[in-house]
Amino acid sequence: MALGPTIRRLRQERQLQINELAMRLSRPDPSYLGKIERGEVPNLSSELMAQIAMALDVSIDYLYMEAGVLPADHDPGELDSTERDLIRAIRGIGSPSVRQRVLEQLTWIAEVARDADLARQPRLKLAAEEHEEYQSKQQSDE
Questions:
Q1: What 3-state class would DSSP assign to 117?
Q2: Ramachandran angles phi, psi of 45, nearest 5°
Q3: pTM of the shown model
Q4: Residue from 31, 25, 35, 48 nearest 5 by CA
Q5: Residue 78's closest CA among 59, 64, 60?
Q6: Domain extents for the chain?
Q7: What whole-number distance in Å separates Cα of residue 57 and Cα of residue 78?
Q8: pLDDT digits (tens, 9 = 90+) for 50-90
Q9: CATH dotted code for 1-92
Q10: Interhelix angle 46-55/81-91, nearest 10 degrees
Q11: Could you give the CA distance from residue 133 to residue 25 in angstroms, rounded to a whole number?
């Protein structure tokens, strides 16, 4: 199943109208979402994928697996309570522009963490070490 029809199926399973999902995505015009669901938008940004997954209460991995992009034996798992709490907190941000910025930052963090995990943690370790060195330097400068 392609990504667009998967998004439509998940939206309908959650009994959301297309305009309700569009509002959750801070997109007042549902026509773009309709194009996505019909498969007329071939490449979605990682930020938009994160927003759609969050709005549908699924992980991005789950969305990709359901669409057949990831192998069927990939086990993304369901959202745990911490992930659901994070989604609720982000949804609670009143300003759409602030919410968008938070999503962009979280997507970037997730991509860095995923890349570091794929590389067996060296980047993440290096970033942590650099942060510790920076903090030590600031404390010694004071």
A1: helix
A2: -70, 155
A3: 0.53
A4: 35
A5: 59
A6: 1-92, 94-142
A7: 9
A8: 888 888 888 877 777 777 676 666 655 566 778 778 877 88
A9: 1.10.260.40
A10: 100
A11: 39
